[in-house]
Amino acid sequence: MHSRIRIGCAAALLALVSFGQAAQAQFTAYNDCVFDPGLVGADNDPGNGTLVHYIGANVTTFGIGNKMADGSSANGGTQYGTNAGEATSGLLVDQGSGIATGVTAALTQNGAVATVNWQPKVAAGPDGDPPPPGESQWTGGYDAAVGTDANTEFAGTADATGTIFYGSLGWWVDLTLSGLDPNKVYTFTTTAIRAKANTDPPETYTDRETLYTLSGADGFTASPSVGVAVVGPTQQFVTGNNFAAGLVAQWSDIDPGADGTVVIRAESAGTAAEPQKAYAFDVFKLEEAVVCGNGIVDPGEACDDGAGNGTTACGCDLTCQFPAAGTDCSDADVCNGDETCDGAGTCQAGTPLVCDDGVSCTIDSCDPILGCQVTPDDTICDDGVACNGAETCDPINDCQAGTPVNCDDGVTCTFDQCSEPTGTCINTPLDPLCNDGLTCNGQEFCDPILDCQAGTPIDCSDGVSCTDDLCAEPAGSCSNPPNDANCDDGAFCTGVETCDAINDCQPGTPVDCNDGVSCTNDSCNEGTDSCDNIPDDVICDDGLTCTGAETCDPINDCQAGTPVDCDDAIACTVDSCNEPAGDCTNTTVDTKCADGDSCTADSCDGVLGCANDPIIGCTPVATTNGWGQAALVLMVMGAGAVVLLMQRRRTV
């Protein structure tokens, strides 16, 4: 909750407390500095319903200042303390029991300047007007917001309503606490809250800060709320707007010194625009603590050995209590068990450890720090046999068999064995392990590194390449039968080769492909293993064109071609074929047109054939047999006409 700063040079007793020992309260006293007994008791703010102006049981009400004459207090215009039920000083009372504490609280102020003002509430609004609906009527403060330090320390017991506020520049208020026990330490807590800023903006008053200074103490620890500035014995925070923050000034471990008196002064920090404006004490609390370590067993303490507190495991501790029963008071030797406190200052012996783990091969012992120690000892498990491996001790499963010596050399034909007592391996070669039961392939043997090695086969070669050189089992005798297949050259046309047991391979008889036909080309085909007899027309060619193209018949041999046909179908032409071109000639012959008529002119046309045109003025010659006229003509025409005459006669 609070920050803590240790200041001062107190006695050794106080120093022990300041370093964090729990200090129980002998008493707790509260004072409400601004409670007006002349007003009605607890009330609710009509503006927001906040509970105000209440006071807890056994809470004193010492205050100081000029009571405002604006209706905010009873007997306004008088100094607080001059009316019945009012006081500026008196004995503080233990709030829990109602018994006087013997400590006097006295409030004083700087008399050289105008007095401070004392105001429990303000009934009027701004400038004396009635407050608007819903606006707070309590401008003199509220309890701080829930969850803040000020609320935790005071709410429900001492009401923060009301305030002692500034007088003229230079004002201060001193709270003197006297009658404090020099052998005790105390905690003092106070706060001031001007709540108008939280209920009636814009009057925020965030620049109004108060200085609280502790003096007269031989030692103390500053432990205010986080956010409070601390410089030496002085603590500073905003009191003009402290509702939401709820800060408190606090000193703990206060050593009052031999005179039993301390003073807490409240004054303006001068931070406001009007530097006198700040607020003094609204409420304060004083707690007297039980001091552990003074050698006296105070109420609530089970023991107090003074400087001896906390020096033994089971003796009185730094809180003046015996450690609880069962608290460890070990002598740092775990072997004799766990020593524990009995709760009355005595350390009881523990039960010694039993370190037998029930494992036959371990050496069991106890270490004062580590406790039971189990050390496996392989020698306990040794059976004295080297070849079965080194036995080991498992700290959980006892003796474990070793791994036998592996003498396997990876060679199949050696006999592998381990020799005692050294555990060395012997690998003996055994030839019989390599014997395959055959004679012809020779005698196998065992190589201790390379394993079984083949023997030298029996040589049955007779020097003839085409014989099968065979070795017969089990005698290992040789035979050399001829094998024609060994001579086969793979060629069909060369014939079938044969093997001669003495003369080796003999050639075969080549295939005869002659088919007896003169015009075929005869050959042997290796691709088809057969004869090819291919007809060749060229062989039959007689060199003449007019006789036609001769052909080769694979069975009937050469065949005549078809002659060139030169017949033009004209009876009077002589048709012939010309070599070597093979073209035709058709020669006209007029005599072939003679009709036996002496009075016609006979002629041959190569296209139209014979023509027998009458001769004008010609008188035919009468003949008895048809030749008379011809004979006459021949006589007249001469021998040149004989052929023509004969031709015409043929056509008659």
Account of the 3D structure:
The structure is a single chain. A hairpin with a 3-residue loop joins strand 31 and strand 32. Helices cover 6% and strands 29% of the residues. The strands form 15 sheets. A seven-stranded antiparallel beta sheet has the order 6-7-10-17-12-15-14, with no helix packed on it. Strands 1-13-16-11-18-2 form a six-stranded antiparallel beta sheet. The chain folds into six domains: 5-289, no CATH class; 293-345, no CATH class; 362-400, no CATH class; 414-453, no CATH class; 520-559, no CATH class; 590-651, no CATH class. It contains five helices and 40 strands. 28% of the residues are buried. With 652 residues, the chain is mainly beta. The model is unreliable at 9-23, 123-130 and 623-652 (pLDDT under 50).
Which helices and strands, and how do they pair?
Layout: E1 5-8, H1 12-18, E2 25-32, E3 43-44, E4 51-52, E5 66-67, E6 89-93, E7 100-109, E8 117-119, H2 149-154, E9 163-165, E10 172-178, E11 185-191, H3 196-199, E12 209-215, E13 219-222, E14 229-231, E15 234-238, E16 249-255, E17 262-268, E18 283-289, E19 340-341, E20 347-348, E21 362-367, E22 371-376, E23 392-394, E24 398-400, E25 414-419, E26 424-429, E27 445-447, E28 451-453, E29 470-472, E30 477-479, E31 498-500, E32 504-506, E33 520-525, E34 530-535, E35 551-553, E36 557-559, E37 573-578, E38 583-588, E39 600-605, E40 609-614, H4 627-637, H5 642-651
Parallel strand pairs: 5-8
Antiparallel strand pairs: 1-13, 2-18, 3-4, 6-7, 7-10, 8-9, 10-17, 11-16, 11-18, 12-15, 12-17, 13-16, 14-15, 19-20, 21-22, 23-24, 25-26, 27-28, 29-30, 31-32, 33-34, 35-36, 37-38, 39-40
